[in-house]
C-alpha cells in the first residue's frame, strides 16, 4: 500500500515505523529536515521536506497514485486542508486527519465530501480519555480494551501473591468459575511472552491478558488478584483538553478535583464543569496536596503535556498517600522505565492513537487494532467475510486454522453473543474474531487469513 504521512512527530514517526516494517511504500512529509533525516536513517522510507498542505509538496510525495493520506501534523487546519487538496487534485481514496479542536469535532457536517473530505477523524484527546475512563471503571486493570462495541473486553492484570489462581494451572480457571467462560490470551513473565496452555502455571507478578464478555470481567479479575475497591475520590493534575474531557465524563459518578496552574483556564473549567472542584495551583505543591487530603484520593491522574511535571507530581502524590497513580507520558522511551514502581500505570497517548490509526490502514477486514504492552504485542478484531470456498477461516474449527506463530484466537462475537474460543469452535460468516499476536511481524499473515478470495465476488 502506498501511504503518505504528513507530520514526523511522535505519532507520525511511530506510525511510519509500524508500517515500514510491514512492506508498505511510505513517504513522510514534514517541515523539519532534522526529524526527517533521523527517520530516514532508521527506516526504509522516503522523506519530503515541505508544508504538507501544498499541492506541489503532495505531488512530490507521490500523491498522484497514493492509496492513503494520513495527516497528523500539529496543526488541525493543515491536516484538514491537506485532505481537501488530496481529494480535489489527486482523488486520494482514503484520507485520515488528526483533529484536536473540540469545536471542529462537534460539527459532523464539516467532514463530508461536499465540505472537508476527511474519511476518518482521529481525536487523540478523545482516544486517551476513553482509555483512562475504562481503567477507572476496572480498578486493578493495567489495560482494558473494548471489542465489538464493548460486548467483549480484553483486560490485562498483574497476578498477585494470594490470588486464587496463582500457583495453579490455567485449566483450573474453569473449575473455579464453572458458570463463566473466559480465555487467557497471553501471559508476559519478566517481559517475555508465554503462549498459555492448559497446564501453564500462573506465577505472581505475571501480566495476564484475558478476554471475556463485559459482564464477566470483574469475576475473572478476582481470580487473578485481590479485587481493588471501586474508586470514589479522583484528583486530576492538569485541566487541559484531556483533563477537562475526563472530568466531564466521570464527574456524575465520582468525586473529582482538578488542579490547574492557569487562572483563566481555571475560570473556564469552573464555568463548564458541573460538580468538579477546580483548584488553582501546581500539582507538585506539597502543601496544596496535603491541604486537599491527597492521602484520601483513590486515584491521582497526571494529565499535563509535560512528562517531567507529570512524573514528579505523581511520585509526590504517591509518597503522600494517594492509593493509585496514573501518568500520561508523551515520550515512549520513558514508559517502560517508570511503570510498575511508584507509578502504577503509564499511559502513552501516541500508542493509544497509533492503534486507532492502524485499524484504518490494515488490509483485509480488520475492524480494530490495539497496541498492547507499550507496542510489544497487538490485539486485532477482524470480520470473517465470504463463504467456505472463498475464505480461509469460515466453516473451519479453530484447531484446523493455520494461525501464524505466536497467534491465538481469544473470542468470537456472533451477533449479540460472545463465544470464548475453544479448539472445536467453528467460525461462521459475519463473525467478529478477536486475535492476539505476541509477534507483530506476523500481522500481514493474519490479514491474509481474512482476505476473501475472488471466487466470492
TrEMBL record:
<keyword id="KW-0520">NAD</keyword>
<dbReference type="GO" id="GO:0005886">
    <property type="term" value="C:plasma membrane"/>
</dbReference>
<feature type="domain" description="RCK N-terminal">
    <location>
        <begin position="231"/>
        <end position="347"/>
    </location>
</feature>
<dbReference type="InterPro" id="IPR036291">
    <property type="entry name" value="NAD(P)-bd_dom_sf"/>
</dbReference>
<keyword id="KW-0813">Transport</keyword>
<dbReference type="Pfam" id="PF02080">
    <property type="entry name" value="TrkA_C"/>
</dbReference>
<keyword id="KW-0630">Potassium</keyword>
<dbReference type="InterPro" id="IPR050721">
    <property type="entry name" value="Trk_Ktr_HKT_K-transport"/>
</dbReference>
<feature type="domain" description="RCK C-terminal">
    <location>
        <begin position="142"/>
        <end position="226"/>
    </location>
</feature>
<protein>
    <recommendedName>
        <fullName>Trk system potassium uptake protein TrkA</fullName>
    </recommendedName>
</protein>
<dbReference type="GO" id="GO:0015079">
    <property type="term" value="F:potassium ion transmembrane transporter activity"/>
</dbReference>
<dbReference type="Pfam" id="PF02254">
    <property type="entry name" value="TrkA_N"/>
</dbReference>
<dbReference type="InterPro" id="IPR006037">
    <property type="entry name" value="RCK_C"/>
</dbReference>
<keyword id="KW-0406">Ion transport</keyword>
<keyword id="KW-0633">Potassium transport</keyword>
<dbReference type="InterPro" id="IPR036721">
    <property type="entry name" value="RCK_C_sf"/>
</dbReference>
<dbReference type="InterPro" id="IPR003148">
    <property type="entry name" value="RCK_N"/>
</dbReference>
<feature type="domain" description="RCK C-terminal">
    <location>
        <begin position="367"/>
        <end position="452"/>
    </location>
</feature>
<feature type="domain" description="RCK N-terminal">
    <location>
        <begin position="1"/>
        <end position="117"/>
    </location>
</feature>
<dbReference type="InterPro" id="IPR006036">
    <property type="entry name" value="K_uptake_TrkA"/>
</dbReference>
<keyword id="KW-0677">Repeat</keyword>
